[in-house]
Amino acid sequence: MRISRNLTENIAQARTMLPISKSFDVVTRDLYLGQTRAYWIGINGFCKTEILQQIFSDLQNPLYMKDDKVESIERYMNAKIGYAQTSLTDDWDVILRNVCSGPSVLFIDGFDQAILMDVRTYPARSVGEPDTERVSRGSRDGFVETMLFNANLIRRRIRSPRLTFEILSVGEESKTDVAVAYLDDHADRELIARIKKALNDLEITSLTMGSKSLEELLVPKKWLHPLPSFHLTERPDVACSFLEEGHIAIIVDNSPTVLILPCTIFQFTQSPEDYYKSPLVGTYFRLVRFLCIPISLLLMPFFLLITVHYPRLCEEWNLLSTGILPGPTLIFYVFAVEFLLDLFRYSASVSSSRFSGSLSIVGGLIIGDIAVELHWASVEILFYAAITLLTTLALSSTEFADGLRVYRIFLIVATAFWGIWGFGVGLFLVLLSAFTTPTFARMSYFWPLFPFNWKALRTLLFRCPTTEAQPAKVWTR
Predict the structure, then answer these.
(1) Are residues 310 and 216 in the same domain?
(2) Cα separation of 170 and 27, whole Å?
(3) Of 149, 186, 241, 369, which residue is least crowded by CB atoms under 10 Å?
């Protein structure tokens, strides 16, 4: 729908499309540019008041406004409005989208175009280190909920003219800004085109959960695939390292997490902490992190298999200091401990930092000791469960760790009811689920293991020196 040359008609149309005089944050202003009438609309709190006051003061200053009438709106905008981010539009849809996003609009009588002035400012928290990706050394900044700030944090590290941020709008009502970031000569152009097409084709009202909602829309998954299909990061240095390797980053406004694609399972074993240590120490901790994956997945199911279904081996290996316990009792102990540890971990993660230390003491000392006294658990099961919890917390990605937890519970159930056959079939189904985890554009989830690429796999398994850490050219899949 196009705007009219008559200012009165435009004002009436704006009042039907916007809650003017109903919503307190929609602000308007009647202006006179010499002898020409004008009308301004903006959102209170989204516009920088100081800049607007300066613009209005200049436009209505008799010494500054020597022309009584505005003859050309384009020349007037270029000559009289001393602000960089201005543009012309004649589309009501563009005007509504911009006004609701933050820029303000200026209608001038006699012209079928309006001036958009991007003088917006958003309420934003300060840049700080993300809690889920802390490092002992290195930068302490992290992404925030403002997309422009996140783009600035990336641009500050990659000062290349080839770094590109293409912005799109997602959501019929929310009109959420989504930016696709990539290095023009590094990223796969076909993949970029597919991402942009997928974003434009999304038919959704709003992105209620930000990047998480977008993740589920881009790669729909069934309940049998608990592993994440996107790598999420809140650290600008991590996002920049992936961009340099040819990956693509998706930045969602109002979300402090950035989506990285294409995604592989090996990305969830990486940590920026490795690169703030010497190559040998970084390699050691990386291999320890790889070892944590099978321990977190198999320790409790294997312990349950031996103690319940093979008591003789349990006695030979001294797995239980209290002697052989009945199978149903051990199964109950394992499920009780798994539930209590999950409840404890969830409570500690969502509680205030003031109470997290208290929860650790209560969970570690009181609950564990009382559970043993009340015969809700045994010391051995608490010990193995604690090792499982530590290996799970050692993984840098909480989404990947949660997926492993679901697999482990499934293996425990299968082993408890069907013994060695349940353990074997359950493990096969877990591996099948992991190998068939859907990714965007159906790219391999286990690259560079499949298809095999030793040069890329070596950089993932071992912490290479800085001279060899970055690939000489973009990885080919």
Answers:
(1) no
(2) 26
(3) 369
